[in-house]
Each structure stands twice: as structure tokens, then as C-alpha cells.
Amino acid sequence: MSANADNLQRFTRYQIETFMARCFAASGMPDADAATVAHLMAEGDMLGKDSHGIFRLPSYIGRLKSGGFNPTPDISIVQERTAMALIDGDNGMGHLVVNRAAEVAIAKAKKTGVAWVGMQHSNHAGAAGVYSNKALAHDMIGLYVAVGSANHLPPWGGTEMLLSTNPIAVSVPADREDSIVLDMATTVTSYGKVKVYAQRGIEMPEGWMVGDDGNPLTDASKADTGYLLPIGGAKGYGLALIFGILAGTLNGAHFGKSVVDMNADASSATNTGQFYLAVDIAAFMDVEEFKKQVDAVIAEMHSSPTLPGVKRVRLPGEGAHAAYADRSANGIPLPDPLLDNLAKVADDLSVEGLS
To answer: pTM for the full model?
Structure first.
């Protein structure tokens, strides 16, 4: 989401990535880890995920300063079989933990065809599609699921917020077409996008949130007085529940009432749960034939007659691919309120700012 991007200052990926790396290193992270996290966050910005890139830097630095993140984690495999592993993130930044899990899953899938890696004692890891996309370079399908880092969703028919956005991302390679990348929350929108709207003073559309009275909530600055709505009604609630069990409960991570709200608590360990699934296409069929068939599927979707007012049927990931092309050429747009917050971070850490 990049509302009113034309009116925002733009910065190169290099400027943003090196600035974030400076900030993380100044907060006690090893230089290599600082660079890795900065790279993964900047990748989210390049994909147009404005709520999950540099927008998160002030809160991440706040958690590092308050002890909420371990700046020097010993990320390790604590359970392992041929086609699975369970990784303990040692309360490190989620970007480092999920990146490690993706590497392990991909390496295993090259031998076993399919590999599932769960995570415990992890943290918020930014844009989900950044990680599912990692499988594409290996001619694999990547799937990533996480327990959200704060509960903003009640069970269907209930009023207590026991569930989170619990996002999922799936990346499927194609041949001549762009990859298909589904990156979505199980709620109508992510809470991060709500925070972006609040920072920019943009009114939310009806259908994203409702207040305690059940009426639509459109003032993003009052988001903490309401709750998010699930996609597809009870079906979205069901997905959030099952994904939470698979990414949280199965891994010995927090789920339900035990989830720590990282927005309200900067010092407690969140024990966030996630899992990564890598599928080696070659274990099922010829890779090039598969990619050509995906191209054919894409062509079929694009050729569908459209409803009035719809110019063209879109596929998941088209917006992210367009954002990547635009931002590669023109830079990443950042709003003034965020720039003000980033300047404060730079001053507090005594590092060179984002010029």
C-alpha cells in the first residue's frame, strides 16, 4: 500500500537499506545480522509492502533498546528429521529466524522433495512474501505462515480478541510470466496497513474494522478501540484459527491468549511461531513444463471476460511486481511523518540520518 506515493519523497533502496543497517548495528546487532535484516526489510518496501518495511524501524529499534529482541541470538535446530526441522530463534529478530528456516527448508527439499520447518521463540518478520519468494530461485514453491504479533480478531461470533491476522504467503514460479505471489492476512487487511493509514491521516474503507458497538470504524487513529474483520466471515476465522495452530501451537510458540502485543509491550519476549514449507517442483514433474503450464493458467485468468468497470483480471502478486519495477526506477516513497520518526531514531542512535 502506497497511498499518494506521487506526493512523497523517494529514496533509493541503497539509501534505505544502509540507513537501517546503521541503526541496527548501533543498537547492538552484529554487522552481518544488521545487514541481513535491513536487506529483508528493504525488500518488503520494494514489493510495495509499506507497512512492513522501514515503517517498522522505529518500533524494532525500540524493542531492541527495551530488551524485547535478543540482538545476538543463537538460532539453532532443536528437532530434526529428514523432511522437517524445528528452529529455536532465541528471541532474535524474526527476519533472521525466518530467513534461516527458509534456507533449511529449501536445502532439505532438494533431497526430500518437500520440507516443513517450524519456528519457536521468533518475532515479527515483516512482509511474508519476502520469504515465500526465496524458493523461486531454486525452482520451488515457497509457503510461509505466521502467528500475528498482536491479537486484533475475535473468534467468529465472539467479542474477545483471541486471534491475529495470521498471514500466509505462497510463491509459485512461472516461465515467461511473473511469478504468482499470494501474500495476505486472514483479516480483511493487516494491522500494519491500519497503522500506516493512521500515520498518514487517511480514512479507512468500511469493512476493514468495526468498533465495540459493531458499527464500521473508519478512523485509523482509533483502531485500538475496535477490531479487524476476517476475510470471508466465518471462513476467515477458521483459517486464522488453523494457521495459528500450525504456526504456533505445533511449534511450542504462543497462540490465543498467550500472544504478546508487540505494539503495546516493547520488553517481553513474544515467542512468535511461524512455519516454512518448500516444495521442489522437480519431485513432481519437469520444472520447465510446470512453469509453462503456470503461464497458461495466467493467460487463462487474464483472458476472462470482465465485469463492468473492471479493465483486466489480475493475479496475486501483480501489484508487488509493479511496485518493484516502479521503485527500482524511481525510488521508495516515504511520507513526512515517517521521515520525522526516522530522524529521531538516527539522532537517538547518533548515526547518519536518511538524507
So the answer is: 0.94
Q: Using DSSP, state whether 91 is helix, strand or coil.
A: coil
**57 Cβ neighbours under 8 A, 6+ residues apart:** 20, 23, 41, 342, 345
How many Å apart are CA 246 and CA 108, to the nearest integer? 20
User: Cβ of 136: how many Cβ atoms within 10 Å?
Assistant: 16
| pLDDT tens profile 305-327 | 999 999 999 999 999 999 999 99
- Burial label, 59 (beta-carbon count in 10 A; 0-12, 13-18, 19+): middle
Under DSSP, the state recorded for 178 is: P
Q: Name the grid cell of 198.
A: 493512521
**In this structure, are residues 98 and 144 in contact, taking their beta carbons and an 8 Å threshold?**
yes
Give the span between the Cα atoms of 166 and 144, in whole angstroms. Answer: 10
Q: Is the pLDDT of residue 332 over 50?
A: yes
Which among 178, 128, 186 is positioned nearest to 301, based on CA atoms? 178
Strands 76-81 and 209-211, sheet pairing: unpaired
3-state secondary structure of 202: coil
Helix (H) or strand (E) holding 321: helix 318-330
Residue 227 CA: distances (Å) to CA of 46, 69, 275, 289: 29, 27, 25, 45
Check residue 122 and report its DSSP letter: E
Longest Cα–Cα distance in the chain: 57
- Integer Cα distance of 72 and 252 in angstroms: 22
The DSSP result for 222-272, as a single string, is GGGGEEE-BTTTHHHHHHHHHHHHHHTGGGT---GGG---TTT-SSS---E
Please give the domain boundaries of the chain with CATH numbers for all domains. Answer: 1-66+317-355 (1.10.1530.10), 71-187+230-303 (3.30.1370.60)
Cα 185 to the chain's mean position, in Å? 9
d(CA 85, CA 76): 10
